Every structure is written in structure tokens, then in C-alpha cells.
Amino acid sequence: MAALATAPQPERDPVRAPQNPVVGVGLAVIVVVGLSIQHAASTRLALLFVTGTALGVVLYQSLFGFTSAFRVLLADGLSAGFRAQMIMLGVACSLFFPALAGGSLFGQPVTGFVSPVGVPVAVGSFVFGVGMQLGGGCASGTLFSVGGGSARMVLTLLFFIVGSVVGITHLAWWQTLPSLPPISLVSTLGWPLALALNSAVFAAAYLVVARIEQARHGTVAPITSIKDGSWLRGPWPLLAGALGLAVLNFVTLSLAGRPWGITSAFGLWGGMALQAVGAPVGTWSGFSTPEMQKELAGGALADITSVMDIGIVLGAMLCAGFAGKFKPVFRISGKHFMASVVGGFLLGYGARLAYGCNIGAFFSGIASGSVHGWLWIVFALLGNWAALYVRPSFDLPVPRAQAAC
Asked: Is the model's pLDDT at 63 over the cut of 60?
């Protein structure tokens, strides 16, 4: 592509009046759900719901999308979103590593997401990467887009859940394939050396992609600008999104005793739905474990990941209403319908194989010092790259500018 004078920037929507009914309903639902969680479970779980709501606000207000960031980097060398992710990871590791090495945080035991490194992660993250580009979002992007009023992403979420259920039932077979045991850089190297090594990789990746953007476009798009938005209505700078997500993941660690995750809830939701219509879910592979039996019996409002996911949707809905942008459109072409079906299924299936998604495996995995997080991003990027050649078959363009997800 010929060099351009300036890198393309996301188009900004005109300022709209707040949708007071949407804002009112959003606030009311947040209060009711929060109080219900506190009554049914605990204050700690209610605080995690509030943390999820805050995550939804940060994701929506900063337009912090992984899918779009990967797409424009691979397709056109635009690096703002990816650079923001490197800062997010650097800040998160600085917060996480000392706490994980100490084993407790504010008196609460804490553990990271450290998973095996092998074939299931490589295959699952590649499949997830393809699903990102077909389904139109990642795990976090799907949730905050649903909250923002995207009807197409509701379809993606439904099949994300279907893929998660199928992935759970197949997981035992995938785990028989070659893998190394979980490797924690914090435990292996000690947290200071692990932090130095990770920080060096983040800095190198930041500089390399910035150099690519400079060479292709003649400039490097800033991640600090708020020129076309406001702090109240958004969009926020990507840097603000990166810092907000890192801090809120650390808050999650302090409250839950483990990092932020998203996709494990989808398998639970699917299992609960099937159980409600009489399916013998409890006898299926993956669902018959004591842990899954306990989660199915407890329900969504007793599950940390579920209440945080619900919070993300509601936080994004609140922001969309305040910005006057909550306007679901239910028209969808046949090819876009199929893209959401296929993409959503691949997202769910891939996440189960890879021990998580862009949040649980990539963000929280690397923030935990787990080597599997690095394997995840390599193969997820390969999957995203491969899917760029598949998108036109579903009448999906390959945009040359960063979007929300």
C-alpha cells in the first residue's frame, strides 16, 4: 500500500442527546442485579459485579477492541491498538508479579492463570483468532458490543455459548495431545527478572509495530489524544483504556483471588440452558466434574465470571445510552448471519481449548507470568491473519481504520 500523509483515524460519531430511558433502565438494572447478588451470594461478589460494570465502561468509552487492533495491524500496519495493549500488559505485570510471588494481596490468597503449554493452546488460539474476524469481536468486544446495542453481536454471543458447550465436552480428548506442564515465569525466574524480561518484550513489540506504522504511513497515530471526544461522553484515549483495564484486572485479582476471565461463564450459561430443558448435562464429559456440578447448581449469580460478564454488558449499555448511541438494528444479511454463527462457534470452541480468550489467556495469562499466554498471542495472530482472506467470502470488508472491536 502506498505511504499516506497521515494514518487513518476512526470516524467519530456526531454528538447526540443522551437516551434518558436507556440510562434510567441501565442504572435500575445495575442496582437491582447488584443488590440481588449481594443478597444471594456475598458483598464480595457484588463488588466483582461492580468491577465488571466498570470494565464495561472502560471498554466502551475507550473503544478498546482487540479484534480491530489485530486486523488493522495485520492488514495495514496501523499499530495504535496493539501498542496500547503492550502498555496494558506492562502495567498489569508490574502490579501482578509482586502480588503473585507473595501469594496474597490485602490478606487474600491469590493465584494466577497458569496453564499447560502445548497443542490445545496453539490450535485453540488459532481457531479463536479466526472466530474473532468472522464473529466481529473477541470475548470482551462481544460483551461490550452487545451492551452497546449491536444486534449482530447478540447472535455471535449465542453461538459463542454453543461453541463453549461443545468445547467443554471435547476438552478431555484435546488434553491428551502433547503439552508441557504449566510454566510460570514468576516462579521460575523470580518476579523481578520475570518483570524485566516481559517488559523488554513489550517495549520491543511496541517499537517494532510503531516503526512499521511510521514506514507505511509516514506517521505514528497517538494513543493519548482525546481531541474528538470528551471524558464524559467518550471516546477516551486508548492509553486511558489500557491503564483502566490493567488496574481493574488487579482489582479483580484482589477481590476474586484470581485474574479477570470471561469465557468460562459461557459454557456455564449453555449448560444451565440445556439443563433447564431437560438435557442430562451433568452426565456429559466436562460437565460431570465436581467443579462444574457445583457451578451448575449455584447458578450464574453465584459465579464470579458470570456476574462480571453481566456487569460488562450493563456498563456498556449505560455508556451507550448516555452517548445517545443505543440503537439496535435487527437487519442482517444472510452472509453476515452465517459469519456470526461460524465466528461465534469458533470463538467458544477455541477459547475452551486454549484455556481462555484474549482476556483470560492473553491478558490475564501474561499478567500471571504464564508462558501459555505468549503461545496464545502468536497463534491467535496467525488465526486473525488467515481470517483476513476468509472475510470477503462473508461480505465482510477489511477496514483500514481502528474500530471499537
From this structure: yes
How many residues are there in the chain?
405
* Residue 4: per-residue pLDDT: 32
Distance, CA of 378 to CA of 365 (rounded, Å): 13
Q: Is 344 exposed, middle or buried (0-12, 13-18, 19+ CB in 10 A)?
A: buried
* Single-letter code of the amino acid located at 223: I
What is d(CA 166, CA 98) in angstroms, rounded to the nearest whole number?
Answer: 37
Q: Which three cell numbers stand for residue 360?
A: 483470560
C-beta neighbour count of 260 within 10 angstroms: 28
CA nearest to 158, candidates 403, 332, 283: 332
Question: Phi/psi zone of residue 257: left (φ > 0), alpha (ψ -120 to 50 degrees), beta?
Answer: left
User: Strand ranges (DSSP E) for 178-263?
Assistant: 179-180
Q: Is pLDDT above 70 for 30?
A: yes
Question: What are the φ/ψ torsions at residue 338 (nearest 5 degrees)?
Answer: -65, -35
Backbone angles phi, psi at 179, to 5 degrees: -155, 150
Residues paired with 109 in a beta bridge: 104
Helix, strand and coil in the chain, % to nearest 5: 70, 5, 30
How many CB atoms are located within 10 Å of the residue 391 CB?
19
Domain residue spans in the chain? 20-394
Cα separation, 201 vs 369, whole angstroms: 13
Q: Residue 105: which residues within 8 A CB-CB, separation 6 or more?
A: 99, 253, 254
**Ramachandran class of 286: left when φ > 0, alpha when ψ lies in -120 to 50, beta otherwise:** left
Mean pLDDT of the chain: 92
For residue 149, give Cα distances in angstroms to 144, 262, 286: 9, 19, 33
- Rounded Cα distance, 31 and 295, in Å: 24
Q: Does residue 8 carry a pLDDT above 70? A: no
CA atoms of 373 and 111, how far apart (whole Å):
15
pLDDT per position as a tens digit, 295-352: 999 999 999 999 999 999 999 999 999 888 888 877 889 999 999 999 999 999 999 9
Cα 188 from Cα 179, distance rounded (Å): 18
Cα 202 to its chain centre, rounded Å, is 19
